[in-house]
Design goal:
Elements lengths: L2 E12 L2 E12 L3 E5 L6 H9 L6 E6 L2 E2 L5 H7 L1 E4 L11 H8 L10 H4 L1 H10 L1 H5 L10 H13 L5 E5 L7 H16 L4 E4 L3 H7 L2 E6 L2 E6 L1 H5 L2 H7 L3
Parallel strand pairs: 3-8, 3-9, 6-7, 7-8
Antiparallel strand pairs: 1-2, 1-4, 4-5, 9-10
Helix pairs in contact: 3-7, 7-8
């Protein structure tokens, strides 16, 4: 068992407001681990604390064997972690392909051969999301919400991460687009991409996950396999619509 990502006693928040109160979890190499919980439980704060968008006030975050809780966000990307944040945040004036290329800037030469060396990664993204290939010369700001979400995931994958964080990838999408995004996540899981997923639809999250953490008020309340979570009556009542 190889641990790709681990949190041990992580505390984090905003100003004097602590949101995470000593969170611990782990993601094994090749696993898809999902976080479920109510709005405001601390899931997005956890993702930000992992990726360097937010500096933990205590605890340890490990990417592989390396402590990263004091690293800057750009260095964490260089070390192999990519964060696809809530809200997509594409660069609207730029083309789809230029958005994707920006995702690879940390691993490609800064001057000559940039686009040529990105060809393999681009082909992978266009295979995963054929619609992006169709729109590769289109401005990202003119894409639908679902297409922008595909672009955000593709941009994160362009860095060839060892761990991918996906924060609410289905938020605000039409049902048909949710299906496309979830199918892509399933494909990445089959390919062995290590992922930590926050997903608003708990049933969907359980359907793709290898392991689940239920987060409540900044703590890990329950953890287990999807089947174990489905057998927990309190979790079912609170999050699974029963």
């Amino acid at each position: 068992m190889t641990i790709a990502l681990q949190l041990d006693g992580v505390k984090a928040g905003y100003g004097r407001a602590e949101v995470l109160h000593g969170v611990s979890l782990k993601v094994e190499e090749g696993q898809l681990v999902t976080l479920i919980g109510a709005n405001g439980a601390g899931k997005t704060t956890m993702m930000r604390a992992i990726s360097g968008m937010l500096r933990p006030s205590a605890g340890v975050v490990k990417l592989g064997q390396r402590d990263i809780q004091s690293e800057s966000a750009p260095n964490i990307v260089k070390l192999g972690l990519a964060h696809c944040p809530e809200g997509r945040r594409v660069f609207a004036p730029l083309s789809v392909e230029d958005n994707l290329l920006l995702g690879a800037y940390r691993k490609l030469p800064s001057l000559f051969g940039y686009r040529r060396k990105a060809t393999t990664s681009l082909d992978r993204i266009y295979t995963l999301f054929p619609r992006l290939k169709e729109r590769r010369n289109q401005s990202a700001g003119t894409l639908s919400g679902g297409e922008q979400q595909m672009l955000a995931i593709g941009r994160a994958l362009m860095s060839e991460p060892t761990v991918l964080l996906l924060d609410e990838p289905s938020m605000g999408l039409a049902p048909v687009m949710v299906d496309v995004v979830v199918d892509a996540i399933r494909t990445l899981r089959r390919e062995g991409v290590t992922m930590l997923l926050v997903e608003q639809f708990a049933q969907t999250a359980l359907s793709v996950a290898d392991y689940v953490y239920v987060v409540e008020r900044g703590h890990v309340h329950v953890e287990g396999s999807p089947d174990e979570i489905r057998r927990n009556s309190a979790v079912v009542e609170a999050y699974l619509g029963a």
